[in-house]
Amino acid sequence: HIITFGKGETRVETVGVNAVVYVVRGCVRIFYNGFSTEAIEGQILLLEMGMYQLQPENCELVVFNLEPTHTGDIICYLSTNYNISTTSNHNCEMCDFHNFFIAVPSEVIAEFFKSCVRLFELDEFNEQTQKLKLSELLYLILSGENECLKSRISRMLDAQKNRFRQVVFDNVFANISVAQMASKSCLSTSAFKREFEHNFDVSPH
Predict the structure, then answer these.
(1) For residue 191, which of 45, 51, 72, 202 is within the disulfide window of CB 3.0 to 4.6 Å?
(2) What is the pTM of this model?
């Protein structure tokens, strides 16, 4: 979705899922756990789940929420068809220090976000378009050369995988259907079955 802020007071935002944010114009100051920084026009901001204080300054943001239901299916698709991996051995202080991360995107990724804004302006950003654009965004980041950006995205996606494994371990002996376990994992039934077989080499049944 796209959000426009005027120049206002600091506001508290609870981020319920991991999010990728692009600053189209203006800037936004982020406060989290005693740390603060500023994302300005043309930068990408990755927000892991948590409670943030935001201080917007006449800014416009494009926001993609990395909901497990969508991203699980997309990562399976990218892995199968394009050999894209979410595994990253990269680490540095910039990547590991905060719950948020700011990066300067490549020209290709910046153009991608500008195309999203044009779709919003034409009122053509429906649910199907959103899924296609999220697939494109994850492909561009995970196949790109910015190791810090790839590492943080990988970490965010891995956190969702860990949640899946925890749901399985918590419910493996319970009287519960595959569909119910998929729902608890925030995955579609088909995505849950694929993830289960990938992790445990057997079907969930």
Answers:
(1) 72
(2) 0.76
**Contact (Cβ atoms closer than 8 angstroms) between residue 191 and residue 182:** yes
In the predicted model, residues of the chain with pLDDT beneath 70 are 69, 94-97, 159-163, 186
How far, in Å, CA of 17 to CA of 64, rounded? 10
- Dist. CA 20–CA 65, nearest whole Å: 6
Question: Roughly how many angstroms between the first and final C-alpha of the chain, as a whole number?
Answer: 37
C-alpha pair distances (Å), 40 with each of 25, 27, 63, 102, 138: 7, 4, 15, 9, 22
Predicted pLDDT of residue 63: 94
d(CA 142, CA 137): 9
pLDDT (0 to 100) of residue 161: 63
Residue 179: CB partners within 8 Å, gap ≥ 6?
Answer: 189
| 97 contacts: CB under 8 Å, gap ≥ 6 | none
Q: Please name the residue ranges forming H helices in the chain.
A: 68-82, 93-96, 107-121, 127-142, 147-171, 178-184, 189-200
What is the structure's pLDDT at 42? 96
Give the integer Cα–Cα distance in Å for 181 and 202: 16
What are the angstrom distances between the C-alpha of 165 and each of 88, 161, 191? 19, 6, 13
Q: Check: CB of residue 26 under 8 Å from CB of residue 58.
A: yes
Between CA 27 and CA 130 the distance in angstroms is 24
Closest to 160 measured CA to CA, from 74, 33, 40, 82: 74
Amino acid at 172: V
